[in-house]
Amino acid sequence: MIGQLSPFNPNKTMKELFNAVNLRFSGVHHSINEGKINKKQIASRKLEYRRREMENTEIIVSSPGYFIGFSNRGITLRKNGQPLRVPPASALRHITVMSDGVTLSTNLIRFCMEKGVPIDFFDRHCNHIASVLSPAFMQSSLWDAQKAMSFKDRNRLAVKIIVGKIKNQMNLCKYFNKYHKSVGIDAPFDELVKSLSGVLCKMKMSDNLDSNTLMGYEAVAAESYWEYIRQLMSDDEVEFYSRVKKGASDLVNSMLNYGYSLLYPRIWQAILKKRLNPYVGLVHYSEGNPNLVFDVIELFRSQAVDRVVISMIQKKEHTVMSGGLLDDETRNLLTRHVYERLNRYEKYRGEEKRLSEIIDLQISELASAIVSGTTYRPYMAKW
User: Fold this and answer.
1) Residue 177 phi/psi, 5° resolution?
2) CA 133 to chain centre
3) Mean of pLDDT values over 37-52
């Protein structure tokens, strides 16, 4: 992430660079606790950082005044004329601009289109404004397969996505109920489990759910989930009454929206990499919107973002609003935690995988289900 950047100093330690530079490399984030590991382990982890940096990099710009260009020397990044640390051009996988006053050169845009690197633009309220895509992404037989899906096949996958979302919400609440229990939270937790279990049972018993009924079940589950989250944070001196998606002015909703906007380009990138059409959804159908991105992100919101936001608030980390928006330090800290979460390992299909890898695998499984009719199993987090 590019927030408040410093010129690159090769003599700084990796930990200092992350604190000072705030340039986020996909797949690079691990917590370094130098008091608990020896120098050999530290050196090994630094080499791992460098290796992953060379493989997969994402640039996120979240404050004005930056210039990103491209020349025969590679990617150029400047702030007030000062060159900043940049990834190798060959490693660049995605650019996300989340602020006004950011300049991208035509050379950079041409390079990104030639290499298939998408560029996404968001406003400061985390609303998606536009995307710049290479024509190569639009030349895929999978697009025809998506459009040709029968209602029955499309609906079958949509139901599984919503079931996965609800179960992940429930598992996150089980985690907080066990490890971060607040006083008097047992009764709300029991109500939550009863409500979500009831929704899942109704969905299992229903055949041929139409989209309105499916979205109705999702809405009932969401209402119960956010009510439990509200009560979970009731002792944390924050005001959170309900979920607000657009135009949020309170701390919790602003953090959630910002966190989801970090997850959004990761999902988008993975979908394009598998040559799927991001605009042809399974659950969502809004004209002109990247509906498949909205579908897949539902599976990962709770584990990649909600968990991070709740933990930051409960741990009393820096979380401050300034002028109706998250301040730079809060955004930088939230970005770091979300990316650390995306690169945590967990069991998936019997193997240890990073959450970011699981996103790719889930989209591969969706693509296979769309083309070949194979059985799709949604991601369900462990707790």
Assistant:
1) -65, -30
2) 19
3) 64
- Cβ distance 283 to 216 under 8 Å? no
* Crossing angle of the two packed helices 328-342 and 251-273, in degrees rounded to 10: 40
CA 313, 316, 320, 326 torsion-angle sign:
negative
- What are the residues whose beta carbons fall under 8 Å from the beta carbon of 6, sequence distance 6 or more? 20, 21, 84
Please name every residue paired with 79 in a beta bridge, in sequence order, or none if there are none. 66, 82
Residue 276 in 3-state DSSP? Answer: coil
125 close to 89: Cβ distance less than 8 angstroms:
no
Tokens of 289: 């919107």
Q: State mean pLDDT over 349-361.
A: 94
- Provide the sign of the torsion angle of the four alpha carbons 146, 151, 153, 157, taken in this order: positive
Cβ atoms of 76 and 68 within 8 Å: the answer is yes
- For the entire predicted model, the pTM comes to 0.80
Tell me if 378 sits within 8 A of 160, measured CB to CB: yes
Residue holding tokens 């390992």?
345
Beta-ladder partners of 353 = 346
Q: DSSP assignment of 156-168, as one string?
A: HHHHHHHHHHHHH
pLDDT of 383 over the 80 cut: no
Stated length of the chain: 383
Confidence band of 181 (pLDDT split at 50, 70, 90): low
Percent of the chain past pLDDT 70, that is, above it, reads: 84
Q: Are the beta carbons of 88 and 56 closer than 8 angstroms?
A: no
Which range, of 26-30, 177-181, 221-225, averages the lowest pLDDT? Answer: 26-30
Instruction: Give me 67's structure tokens.
Output: 């210039």
DSSP string, 278-336: TT--SS---TTS-HHHHHHHTTTHIIIIIHHHHHHHHTT----EETTEE-HHHHHHHHH
Q: Is the Cβ–Cβ distance between 303 and 366 less than 8 Å?
A: no
Asked if residue 35 has pLDDT above 50, the reply is no
Rounded CA separation 68/96 (Å): 12
> Which domains, ranges and CATH numbers included, belong to the chain?
14-117 (3.100.10.20), 142-372 (1.20.120.920)
Is 363 exposed, middle or buried, given 0-12, 13-18 or 19+ CB atoms closer than 10 A? buried
